[in-house]
Amino acid sequence: MKLRLSILLFLVLAFSMRASYILLPMDESSQKNHLKAYGITFWSLSKNYKASWLLNYRGGSFLLPDASEIRKECQIRGVSFEILSDAQQEKISNEIASPSQNMETVILERVPKIAVYTPKGKKPWDDAVTLVLTYAEIPFTAIYDEEVLSDQLLLYDWLHLHHEDFTGQYGKFFGAYRNTPWYVEQKKESEALAQKLGFNKVSEEKGAVAKKIRDFVIGGGFMFAMCSATDSFDIALAADGIDICEPMFDGDNSDANYQSKLDYGNSFAFKDFILERRPEKYEFSDIDNTDIRIVSPDKDYFTLMEYSAKWDPISSMLCQNHTQLVKGFMGQTTAYNPERIKSNVLVMGTCEINGEARYIHGEKGKGMFTFYGGHDPEDFQHRVGDSPTVLDLHANSPGYRLILNNVLFPAARKKKQKT
Length: 419
What we know:
With 419 residues, this protein is α/β, with parallel strands linked by helices. It is built from 13 helices and 14 strands. It has helices at 2-16, 34-46, 68-77, 86-97, 128-136, 145-149, 174-177, 181-196, 202-218, 228-238, 247-250, 313-318, 398-408, and strands at 19-24, 51-55, 61-65, 82-85, 104-108, 114-117, 141-143, 158-161, 222-226, 301-304, 325-327, 346-350, 357-364, 367-372. The strands form two sheets. The chain has a nine-stranded mixed beta sheet, sandwiched between helices. Helix 8 packs across helix 9.
C-alpha cells in the first residue's frame, strides 16, 4: 500500500514538474545572443506556436511552448533558453500579474509581413535594419519606388525606410562627393527611374512616394525609419507642391521664399523647422542636432524612458532592453532638436547631456511610426566606404535591440486601451 502511494505521489509530482515551456531570457547575464532570440520568436510564430512577450521581466523575455524543434533551433542559432515546468511558469505569470510589479504579458499571435524600402543592389550592411533582420534570420521583402507607387504597400504590416532622401537632393552629398563616380551614377539612375515612373523631377517622384507611405501609415500600417529617412520624409510632406531644390539637383531654381510656404501640418513628427538652403551643406534642416551637439564619444549615451507595462504596453514594448542606457551613434541625422518635435509625439530616448531626442514614436491616423536617430548602433561615426559591422561581435547590442522591438511589435495581439 505504501509503495503504491509512493508511486502515485511520484507520478503526480513528475506530472506537475513536466517541462511545458521554453523561456528565452533577455536579461544581461543570461542571454548569449539577444538579437537572434527575436529571430527564434519570429520563427516560432511562423510555425504556428503560441508566444508571449514578458514585458520588463528579465529584460523583456519571451515565453514559448516546449517543443523539440524550438529547442533544436535555439541550439543551432546559439540562443540561450531555459526549460520551465507548469508550476514555474505559473509562478512567473503570477509575479507579472501582481499590481505591485511593472510587468505585463503580451500575447504574440501573428507573423508581421515586413517590407524594407531600399534601392536595388544595396548590400545588407548599408542599412542597420536590413543587416539585423538578416542576422536574426527574420524574413523581409525589399521594395522601392516602383512597388510603393503601384500600391504594393497594402501587402505589408511593417515598413522600414532606408536612409533615404525624400527631398530629391541626393542625400545632400553634393558638397563632398559630386564628382565621385558613385554619386554621378546614383543621380543618373534616380533621374532615369523618375522619368520611367512618369515624373519630370526626382523631387516630384520622391514626394509622391512619401505621400504613398503617409497613406500606408494613416490606413493602419506601422513605419519605422532611421537616420536621414526620418527628417527628409517629414520635410518632403511639409514641402508638398513646393520646389525646395536648387539647380544642381533638379535643373531649375527653387521657389522664392519657399521656407514660408512649408505646411508643418502635413509632417508626422516635426514642426517649425528651418531648411538648410546651402547645397554644399551636408544637412537638411535644423531638426537634426549633429552639427551643434557637443558630446564626447565616451559620454555619448541616451536613456530609455520607463513606462507602465500594464497601462502603456506599446511604449513598453518599443523600449524593452537589458539596459536603460544605450550607447550613442552618429549619422547624417543623429538626434532631434526637442524644440522641433510636435507635442503629440512621444520621446522614448533622450541624451541627458543636452536633452536631445534619439528615439521617438507617434500615431498617424490608424497607424504608428517610430523614428530612430543615427546610422548604425555599433558604428559610432559611420562614413561612406567604411567596413560593414559584423553583428556576431555585437550579438547583445542594446541599440540593435530597439530596432527588433519595432520589428516584433506588430505581432502583438491588439488590446483595448485602459485609458
